[in-house]
Amino acid sequence: MTPIERIGVTRRWSDAVIHQGTAYFVEVAEDPQQDTRGQIRQILAQIESRLALFDSDQTRLLQVLIYLADLADGVILNELWDSWVPQGHAPARACVQVGLAPGYRVEMVITAATGSVSPRVT
Predict the structure, then answer these.
(1) What's phi and psi for 92, nearest 5 deg?
(2) 30 inside domain
(3) Are residues 112 and 22 in contact, defined by beta-carbon separation less than 8 angstroms?
(4) Confidence at residue 122, expressed as pLDDT on a 0 to 100 scale
(5) Domains contained in the chain, number
(6) Rounded Cα–Cα distance for residues 106 and 53 (Å)
(7) Which of 39, 51, 61, 72 allows an S-S link to 29, with CB 3.0 to 4.6 Å?
(8) 117, pLDDT greater than 90
């Protein structure tokens, strides 16, 4: 059996799970007081930081599932997304409207290829 590595484990979730060179994790804004644009910027920066821990980056994104509290915010999302994802490296992506916890405008579920088996978690 191949090992499964869980990082930041709590009773209900792990901050990230790595299996066979693939990382799975979820990001929400660290500061939900920000508007939609601010929350999306935060999340994209958080994704970059998390990917770096796995010796990975935006070119290694496999799939991103995006949950918006209001699909009207898709215009803002796409503007920021298009400047963030490197040309030619767009992952499979879905974006849907859902009810999120109060104050949260965006949640992203990420699947990415890692650069190494052991992440650089500190």
Answers:
(1) -65, 140
(2) yes
(3) yes
(4) 44
(5) 1
(6) 22
(7) 39
(8) no
Q: Which residue range(s) make up the domain with 55?
A: 4-8+16-113
Element (H, E) at 51: helix 36-53
| pTM (predicted TM-score) | 0.91
Sign of the alpha-carbon dihedral angle for 91, 96, 100, 102:
positive
- Assigned token pair, 8: 């930041």
Strands (E), the chain: 4-7, 16-19, 22-28, 61-68, 92-97, 106-113
Residue 25, domain CATH: 3.30.1330.40
Query: Residue 17 phi/psi, 5° resolution?
Result: -130, 135
> How far is Cα 56 from Cα 30, in angstroms, rounded to an integer?
21
How confident is the prediction for the chain on average, in pLDDT?
94
3-state SS assignment for residue 75: helix
**122 inside domain:** no
Asked, for residue 118, whether it belongs to a domain, the answer is no
Beta partners for residue 106, in sequence order? 68
Read off the pLDDT of each residue in 99-116 and give the average, rounded to a whole number. 94
9 Cβ neighbours under 8 A, 6+ residues apart: 15
